[in-house]
Amino acid sequence: MAHAPQSNFENPVVNWIDQRLPIFTMMNKEYGSFPTPRNFNYFWNFGALAMFVLVTMIVSGIFLAMHYTNNTLYAFDSVERIMRDVNWGWMIRYIHANGASMFFIVVYIHIFRGIYYGSYKAPRELLWIFGVIILLLMMGTAFMGYVLPWGQMSFWGATVITNLFSAIPVVGESIVTLLWGGFSVDNPTLNRFFALHYLLPFVLLAVVVLHVAALHITGSNNPLGVEPKGPQDTLPFHPYYTTKDIFGLTVFLIFFASFVFFAPNLLGHPDNYIPADPLVTPAHIVPEWYFLPFYAILRSITFAISLPFTDVVLIPAKLGGVLAMFGSIAILFVLPWLDSSPVRSARFRPIFKWWVLLCLVPAFFMLGYAGGKPAEQPYVLIGQLGTVMYFAFFLLLPIIGRIEKPLPLPASIANPVLGGNAATAK
Amino acid sequence: MRRLRTLIAAGAMTIAGLTSTALAAGDAPLPPAQTWAHGGVNSFLSFFKGYDYASVQRGFQVYKEVCSACHSMHLLSYRNLHDIGFTEAEVKAIAAAQEINDGPNDQGEMFTRPGLPSDRFKNPFPNKQAAAAANGGKAPPDLSLIVKARAHHEDYIHALLTGYTDAPAGFELSPGANYNKYFPGHAIAMAQPLYDSGVTYTDGTAATIDQQAKDVTNFLAWAAEPKLEERRRVGMMVILFLVFFAGIMYAAKRRLWSEVH
């Protein structure tokens, strides 16, 4: 007992374990008495919701993997066997398919909350960066998961997206061959995608552990964006936020279950109920809805970038699109350093607040809309406008931080919360 | 509460945005909306609706006597027909009416035998190539999932089956193609399959083209989403429980937080 403090649990078994491995002490410290800002709004539920969806995806996914056949000849029919002959298979598959959508809905709101309330700012930059890595892993995992049923959209989505890598100069074609395991999307592609689709969620889980560990070092941000200054500003996580999180989770589950049980194919595409056919290209190849904003950015670079006054093409349109698409995620990594304002919460940032609500949010919806439409006018223009707004949001943050005059910050969390509605009514 | 409302509004906007994704293209008009007893496989507001099994059974007859000449339904077994109201004896008889290729036997020979309830619906063609060769180079699509695999689902299938007309003046129809109002591009290889009294229903229903189209669409909807009723039934219980539990949790949360607000 040189390092661990003496445990004082009433249950002798718990005590015995805790003295040897203080997991109960840790759980109590991190989830029991953990001091949490008292003024969270419901946006702060979404981290817990994301965790719940991740676990749901892993559990439902493992059951699906028990019945799925990872071969181009049998994959489609094995999924249908799950839908028809496996006990509760239809429910497990609809939970998993819609769970992917739920994961992105929850995570996009979680990211919006982080941006709006400045949760990425010091000292939480690393916490934010882990979050962006989680987003990237989610995207890779979801993309490969959509390929597994081996329907038409699976196949053609995989073909289009993997082909993007061919835009990389010199090594692009080799990378694509490596991804495919051959010279087209085929059985080797399906095999490696299945292997990676099983692997990546556990990598994701590990990064989530880091994300949560970093959170528990810095503590949570809150809607006011001012750090707790003492016990009057915080509440123990349990029972206050466990109760609030479970209530929020139940409401979210009503939303989730509505899709699973009453509209399980609403977010999917009819073409994915047609088995993959390399000889028949669908009229419109669209990715899953949660990729549409990024797909729109990809497609909005319709022009090559040349040396001025010459015909020397520096960046062909395809490479430009790929760079813009990856850039739209990469820029999130440097967000903590782009934003020059010392004030976190948009509530006290009169310009930033509307900059988020009238530039970033509309850009996201415009891009999502344009991404789902065919590549023709006016959709291309809407996508291009959305792309400009999306990047402008980030690139003008250094200037906004400088010219903006923030409102006076409250002295502490407890003051405005307990001192009436002045600050919370916003 | 205000922020909660903002959240809900944001969610509604998201869904509205998502569902506008590009679906089937082409110059074909929208299929007219029909009334389906089960509300449609993709219908959200049909919590208590189920299949019209008399119609589904008639639809199976249409499939068997008309569609199955060219279209396979390889995801269905004869035993599944039990679920739409055929008795076990009827299922056995329906299966036994088919000659199924089986084997190899102990002597290494292929042989034929009467079908069993556990057999998949017999494919009209021995393989995909034969199906393509017999149909102008393109195999007729398998119908197991057709209702879920087309935009507008039941309405589209019904519209397609009833949408055969003469080609308008000036429309170039290649040989072997037929004009269909609702088919993308209008030139469809499938000849008009349904005719008035093309089948004879045993329950006395008048076998108009429209009636046959409705019946076979109902059958195909059931084939594509056989767990629809179970899904909605379980869903109602899940939602009821969750609403109840959300109420309890909200009360618990309110009571707990009233001490610190």
Structure report:
- The complex is a heterodimer of chains A (426) and B (261).
- By secondary structure, chain A is mostly helical.
- Chain A is built from 17 helices and four strands.
- In chain A, a hairpin with a 6-residue loop joins β3 (305-306) and β4 (313-315).
- Chain B has 261 residues and is mostly helical.
- Chain B is built from seven helices and four strands; from the N terminus they run αααββααββαα.
- Chain B has helices at 2-18, 53-65, 88-96, 128-133, 153-162, 209-224, 228-258; strands at residues 99-102, 111-114, 178-179, 187-188.
- In chain B, strands 1-2 form a two-stranded antiparallel ribbon. Chain B has a two-stranded antiparallel sheet with strand order 3-4.
- The radius of gyration of chain B is 24 Å and the shape is globular.
- Chain B starts with a helix and ends with a helix.
- Residues 17-25 of chain B have low confidence and may be disordered.
- Chains A and B meet through α4, α5, α10 and α14 of A and α1 and α7 of B.
Topology at a glance:
The complex is a heterodimer of chains A (426) and B (261).
Chain A: H1 12-20, H2 23-32, E1 35-37, H3 46-67, H4 75-84, H5 89-116, H6 125-147, H7 152-163, H8 172-180, H9 187-218, E2 234-236, H10 237-262, H11 292-300, E3 305-306, E4 313-315, H12 317-333, H13 335-338, H14 350-371, H15 379-395, H16 397-403, H17 414-418
Antiparallel strand pairs in A: 1-2, 3-4
Chain B: H1 2-18, H2 53-65, H3 88-96, E1 99-102, E2 111-114, H4 128-133, H5 153-162, E3 178-179, E4 187-188, H6 209-224, H7 228-258
Antiparallel strand pairs in B: 1-2, 3-4
Helix pairs in contact in B: 2-6, 5-6
Could you provide a short overview of the structure?
Chain A is mostly helical.
